[in-house]
Amino acid sequence: MEMQFKPIQLPGVDTKRPIVIAGPCSAETEEQVLETAHDLAARGIKIFRAGIWKPRTKPGGFEGIGSEGLLWLRRVKEETGMYVATEVATQYHVLEALKYGVDILWIGARTTTNPFAMQEIADALKGADIPVLVKNPVNPDIELWIGGIQRIYNAGLRRIGAIHRGFSSYDEKVYRNAPQWHIPIELRRRLPDLPIFCDPSHIGGRRDLIAPLSQQAMDLGADGLIIESHCSPDYAWSDKNQQVTPEVLDNILKSLVIRETHTTEDISDLRNQIDHLDNDLIDLLAKRMRVSREIGQFKKEHDMTVLQATRYDEILGNRIEKAKAAGMDGDFMKVVMQAIHEESVRQQMTVLQNK
Ligand code: PEP
Ligand code: MN
């Protein structure tokens, strides 16, 4: 399906990269919202975020202040002149947010995962002209992400953006949600005029990762950043480990190096993409080796030989066919698979030799 998007232009907001959205994970109290907003506004932030309804993984935590907080956002607008953004997950949220004059809506990762919820939101948005940012689904499924965007588009909205907030995984991890940069890169390739925001707070889950992740996003040509900022991060009611004060945020933003050309024709951008893709390849290979070692452990416990020849032939044949179908040379894939197999065998042998 062909989609043509309009840029997220707001009067008074510079369209120069990055467009910055900042504010607390959650609106907690009227004082916390206003103190944070005034500090951010004084530092030049033009778009304020705050979660009013919070999708929490487990019950019992703070699940958001609800509609009352929309009055606080209205005060933020009146007192600071900033635009305000919040997350919507149901028809009720959309109607409430529109009623109270929220300027930008975003859809959370857990919601994008559910087509019923996305359709309900899209239906509630019919006829509205408001920018909507769609976060990636929690699982690394680009089709589900694009499908969610299509539902909003089909409701008649054109100022749509995507937010890359990383993907959950079971592995021991540096990141709260693995960035898997190849997915937003592919989204840019598939929908070149769709504005893409990066959410380093939810990718990193840690304050110290916000700056390097923001820089990576900028190097990959992201249009904007959405960053969690709180007047007293250590006392935040949700996501405290990843929130920074407006002052720290300001320093992070000032430290970013923004390379001006970011079209895909630009060679440095393409080289950056290659660097990130190679990093992803190395991560994937490391995961594959870890699984190999687990297989080695299993074989050791069950007295099996390391080399199971029929299994190897099967893998080789199957991967070569897949590579050919994806437009690569069969002999090339054979060499790659042989090298990977050699290293896997070596890793399994070390497991077997470890008494
Ligand atoms: C948020 O932005 O506070 C949020 C809940 O994000 P996500 O949907 O990415 O977890
Ligand atoms: Mn959060």
UniProtKB/TrEMBL annotation:
Signal peptide extent: none
Coiled-coil ranges per UniProt: none
Entries under InterPro entries matching the protein: Aldolase_TIM (IPR013785), Chorismate_II_sf (IPR036263), Class-I_DAHP_synthase (IPR052899), CM_dom_sf (IPR036979), CM_II_prokaryot (IPR002701), DAHP1/KDSA (IPR006218)
TM helices/strands, residue ranges: none
Gene3D superfamilies per UniProt: Aldolase class I, Chorismate mutase
Listed GO biological process terms: chorismate metabolic process
Domain of life: Bacteria
Any GO MF annotation of the entry: chorismate mutase activity
Protein EC: 5.4.99.5
SUPFAM superfamilies tied to this protein: Aldolase (SSF51569), Chorismate mutase II (SSF48600)
Pfam families registered for this protein in UniProt: CM_2, DAHP_synth_1
Positions of the Chorismate mutase domain: 261-352
Keywords recorded for this protein, A-Z: Transferase
SMART domains registered for this protein in UniProt: CM_2
Protein name as it appears in the record: chorismate mutase
